[in-house]
Request: fold
Amino acid sequence: MPDDSQTKRVTRKELYHQVWSTPLRKLAPEQYGISDVALAKICKQYKIPRPPRGYWAQKAAGVRMEKPPLPRGDDRAIIKIDANPERVSESELKKVVAVSSSSGKPAPITVPSELNNPHPLIAQTEKILSTCNPDHRGILATKDKSCLDIQVSKDCLKRALILMDTLIKSLENRGHGIILDKGKTIIKVGDVELPLGLSEETKRRPLEPQDLDLDRHYYDFGYKLFFPDPSPNGTLCLSIKHLEFWPHGELQQHWKDTQSQRLEDCLHRFEAGLLKIVALTHKKRAEKQQRNE
Reply:
């Protein structure tokens, strides 16, 4: 049960005005200690309309924007919003960074263009994956448990190996460990073990309007539906898998290519996120131990 001191109370009408006066990405963490995604879900639950994408940019440019009215309902209904229990304070994170990183904080990581003097695990994985046949998605597939958790197409294999080689070497230079355990790639930061994976996404195509069944419950939301197109799209994603606790809010587990930045330029952010997960894992373990005492 959340600490009542961390619970904020607001009426439905008040939240409606707040949402249309302050961007969610600022309102959610500053006012309520949660993520914008979590606050958006609360708005949806209470049928509170939210500004569409691009609203704030157009408003800042002087465009007159329409604000939809608050749908009928109990405007005085009290909404209880619990501050994110998974939030890790800066002081907690700095402690873990100081202990687990010889340099004190993650620094930018330079990714080479070629695979030079590969780490033994990378050399081993390259030998296995270079002889694999792609599966129905076009992804190199193997059941060999001595292979790192890399699931990419043949076209992206070289890039994936260079990325993972750079990351493994950087992590080991900071005193962390990398092991293979029954086919899982494990990062060891002190007493915390975190499964790691590098994968390539596959294409998706939107569900065409004429494909919709008007009698199905999802019709109103059909514009959000996609069909998988089983072919790789070149987008690489690093993931931390199977945490000891259920992640919430701002806790990031996936880092991937975007239109503005490649994964190569995000490895230092991945390391920072990794340390944040370690800090939160220590915090959750301590809380569990206190409850059992």
Observations:
- The chain is about 35% helix and 20% strand.
- The longest strand covers residues 192-206.
